[in-house]
Amino acid sequence: MFSFSMASLQSAAAMFVFLALELSLLFIVISFAVALIQHKLPAGKVQSLLSSKKGSGYLTAAAIGSVTPFCSCSTIPMLNGLLRAGAGFGPTMTFLFVSPLLNPIVVGLLWLTFGWKVTLVYMVATLLISLLAGVLLERLNFGRYVKQTAPKSGACCTAKPVEPKTACCVPKQVEPKASCCTPTPVEPKTACCTPKPAQAARPSKETMPWLQLWRDALGQFRAVFPYLMLGVAIGAFTYGFIPSEWIAAHTGSDNPLAVPLAAVVGIPLYLRAETLIPMASMFALKGMGLGALMALIIGGAGASLTELILLKSLFRKQILIAFLVVIIGTAISAGYLFSALTPWLA
């Protein structure tokens, strides 16, 4: 099963460097973009658009996911941003399922490689299952297993619930002259809640704190960096030391377990759609059935060990198990559907 050689080691090392650099850059850029969107878009608006109390929230989440060219791992910063903004748990999970499975890259490559019939069935199957999974997880109250991701409140003029007397904008009764919001005769410019004349002339810096947005993005990246590197190492090892010929030999059309095996094998492969779909085309030439091919694509694009490790920083194990069940279930269901429709799709 494993192929240990200098070429395999070089392939694994090259993949590790490529994934580490690519995912690190993607994570930082996407985290910054999410922070920028959060700054521009109030949390109340996000809650309204992606509310789990309205059916349109799920459709909106699916629409956002279908136009974001994210792989399974680069979806995590966006997911974290939606949770922090107060989006509904069900629509957020729908976005998590749809984004890596139904983005423009996947659809375009499927169309070019397998034709419009296969692409249409793929789109309908993955969209319906993603919507149903989001609704079901919401109804089963899996949202209680989300780790707290609320942003820290550091507003200067917001009084603390525990110590209201220390609010910076409320003058103390004993020493009113020490109030930070009441300018003293000597230094009126030091009032914390009264904008300085120089600051009033430059409102752009107040409305768009670029430096703070980058700090937030880098802070999120540092928090997940160990998880990211561990997952990249596992994915690179799998890529370099498990030959593709072994996968094709065990997932032929004459094997009744080809579909579930392909679905499970696709997850540790961790291949982006740009690589996975061309590889699937090569597997087809080697005799791999269409159902197993689709199961491999859905399993590989929909989840990965790297993504699961990253999700562990946001979710408890109950959601991780449910996420795996949905992805594997989607891959197997779609695989058998494609096997049944092979005569029509040929």
From TrEMBL:
One GO location term (cellular component): plasma membrane
This protein's UniProt keywords: Cell membrane, Membrane, Transmembrane, Transmembrane helix
Residues passing through the membrane, by range: 12-37, 57-83, 95-114, 120-137, 224-242, 254-271, 283-306, 318-338
Places the protein is found: Cell membrane
InterPro entries, sorted: DUF318 (IPR005524), UPF0718_permease (IPR053166)
Membrane topology listed for this record: Multi-pass membrane protein
Key word Glycoprotein present: no
Keyword Transmembrane helix attached: yes
PANTHER family: PERMEASE (PTHR42775:SF2), PERMEASE RV2963-RELATED (PTHR42775)
Family affiliation: Belongs to the UPF0718 family.
Protein name per the record: Permease
Species name: Craterilacuibacter sinensis
